[in-house]
Amino acid sequence: MPAVSEASDVVHAGPLSELAASTFPLACPPGSAPEDIRSFIAANLTAGHFAAHIRAVDRTVLWAGHEDGETVGYCLLVHGSQPAFSEPAALRHAPTVELNKFYVHADHHGRGVSARLMTAALQAARRSGAAGIWLGVNQENARAQRFYARSGYSRSGVRTFRMGRRTEQDFILERPL
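and the corresponding structure tokens:
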């Protein structure tokens, strides 16, 4: 059973980047161009990006993996982040934390990894003193929306998300801590 812990850049940045490259496409809408996905990964999900996230004082990276070092999931919390809404809305809880990334390898879906990772994310957000946590999820990603609803999140707005030539619509979901 994979354990969840805080990531360290020496050990985890490379494996996190590899997992991000394999899981990010799963969250993209069906019409996403492969070149846009590859470009987004190259611009945002490299080992260098993960090392910077791990070192940043306003971020927490949680890693889910096996004792043998296999990385099966991760999430990124950004403390104090506020969404840019594309429709009038407001977060109901302040201060807040953004659940910026939350991914589990497809081979580990349905095995409880996501639930353990979410529990750890909520605990980390509480320890930071936040009153709420929010995230953006693509409007076409029904599987993720169901998981977040089971985890206590509800819709508080909409924002746009640019990936390559397409502008995507994300739901902003929020929950109290």
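(Above: one complete record from the training split.) The chain has a mean pLDDT of 91.
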